[in-house]
């Protein structure tokens, strides 16, 4: 979902996801006449080692209380503790079912919490208000 709206301290990560969205959209248009389908799988938070690895590799940086980003790090850590994670095996089965379809949609959301899905449809000003005040 990070390819749908940017979040504080995750700019580079979100940019990479925005790029996947754009590249996939362009490829879908370019390859259509060759009967090649392109889809985007938009997974929600998964129960993997991603956040453990993130914590291990950025703990020194994110625990610096003198950093101008300290409040963002604190907010991000707090929100992650409340976050519900989908089981990766269940998500993999859903993804497998999607890619076996004969006709693919442009996008599929897999295990995306309702609140994440909802915020993607908000006007930019409302998204930013929510993200600034979380």
Describe this structure in words.
The protein has one domain. The protein is globular. With 134 residues, it is mostly helical. The model has no long low-confidence stretch (mean pLDDT 90). It has helices spanning 11-31, 50-62, 70-82, 88-99, 114-119, 124-133, and strands at residues 40-43, 107-110. It contains six helices and two strands; from the N terminus they run αβαααβαα. Strands 1-2 form a two-stranded parallel ribbon. The two termini are 17 Å apart. Keywords: Oxidoreductase. Pfam families: adh_short.
Quick recap:
With 134 residues, this protein is mainly alpha-helical.
Layout of strands and helices, then pairs:
Elements lengths: L10 H21 L8 E4 L6 H13 L7 H13 L5 H12 L7 E4 L3 H6 L4 H10 L1
Parallel strand pairs: 1-2
Note the beta-strand portion. 5-15%
Task: Outline the biggest β-sheet.
Answer: 2 strands, parallel
Name the poorly predicted regions: none
Helix content: 55-70%
Count of helix runs: 6
Indicate the radius of gyration in whole angstroms: 17 Å
SSE order: HEHHHEHH
How many individual domains?
1
- How many DSSP E strands? 2
Kindly name the structural category.
mainly alpha
Terminal Cα span: 17 Å
Principal-axes shape call? globular
**How are strands sequenced across the largest beta sheet?**
1-2
Mean pLDDT: 90
InterPro entries: NAD(P)-bd_dom_sf, SDR_fam
Pfam family, one: adh_short
Keywords: Oxidoreductase
Family: Belongs to the short-chain dehydrogenases/reductases (SDR) family.
């Amino acid at each position: 979902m990070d390819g749908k709206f940017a979040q504080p301290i995750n700019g580079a990560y979100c940019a990479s996801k925005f790029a996947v969205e754009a590249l996939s959209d362009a490829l879908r248009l370019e390859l259509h006449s060759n009967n090649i389908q392109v889809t985007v799988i938009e997974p929600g938070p998964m129960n993997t080692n991603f956040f453990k690895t993130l914590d291990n590799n950025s703990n020194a940086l994110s625990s610096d209380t003198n950093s101008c980003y300290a409040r963002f790090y604190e907010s991000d850590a707090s929100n992650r503790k409340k976050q519900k994670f989908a089981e990766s095996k269940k998500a993999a089965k859903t993804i497998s079912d999607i890619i076996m379809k004969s006709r693919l949609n442009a996008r599929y959301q897999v295990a995306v919490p309702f609140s994440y899905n909802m915020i993607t449809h908000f006007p930019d000003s409302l998204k930013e208000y929510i993200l600034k005040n979380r």
